[in-house]
Amino acid sequence: MSFQDNSENVKRIVLPSGKTIEVVSFEDVTEQLAATEPAAATTPAPADGLHVCTECDSTLVYPIDWEEEGPDKWFVELHCPNCDWTGGGIFEQDLLDEFDEELDRGMEELAADLGRLARANMADDVDRFVEALRADAIQPMDF
Predict the structure, then answer these.
(1) How many Å apart are CA 69 and CA 1, to the nearest integer?
(2) What does the pLDDT read at residue 6?
(3) Contact 106/51 with Cβ under 8 angstroms?
(4) CA dihedral sign, ordered 42, 46, 50, 53
(5) DSSP per residue over 44-105, as a string?
(6) Cα separation of 126 and 120, whole Å?
(7) Is 137 exposed, middle or buried (0-12, 13-18, 19+ CB in 10 A)?
(8) Neighbouring residues of 75: CB distance < 8 A, sequence distance ≥ 6
(9) pTM, whole model, 2 decimals?
(10) Which of 33, 50, 61, 132 could form a disulfide with 137 if both were Cys (CB 3.0 to 4.6 A apart)?
């Protein structure tokens, strides 16, 4: 593999102290390396989406790590909390966009469930407090 002469990427800068430094830019070399590296193989998309476990069919799979593998490709490590499966692969950005939408939908569903649970717990607390007031079971020293 041969690279272009990078002499045009060297800049000399004179600092206020009078000292001269050279700044070397390797952008051209990085671009050449990227162009010569073989493209990472993409993992086939699961039929039901990345949020579905390949082992137990749970729809609770979530990402635990990800790393960019190239333009529009990401390595994503996945985990299923139902059966403790972990796996992953290199996936296209379009598939990951769909996965992200599914994760957002799941987050909204969890937040709605949490809201309902909090309201139900608060209603129970209020009912118990009212009953305690009626039974004269609350004293000033309770506060």
Answers:
(1) 22
(2) 45
(3) yes
(4) negative
(5) PPPTT-TTS-TTT--S--EEEEEEEEETTEEEEEEE-TTT--EEEEEEEHHHHHHHHHHHHH
(6) 10
(7) exposed
(8) 40, 66, 67, 68, 69, 88, 89, 90
(9) 0.58
(10) 132
| φ/ψ (deg, to 5) at 94 | -60, -45
Q: By the 8 A CB rule, do 91 and 44 touch?
A: no
And the tokens for 31?
A: 């671009």
| Token pair in block for residue 45 | 């998309």
Instruction: Give bridge partners of residue 78 from the DSSP assignment.
Output: 63, 87
Which residue type does 105 have? R
- Average model confidence (pLDDT) for the chain? 83
Residue type, 95: L
How many other C-beta atoms can be found within 10 angstroms of the C-beta atom of residue 51?
21
The two structure tokens encoding residue 139: 């004293």
Helices (H) and strands (E) in the chain, counts: 2, 5
pLDDT, tens digit, for every residue of 90-120? 999 999 999 999 999 999 999 999 999 999 9
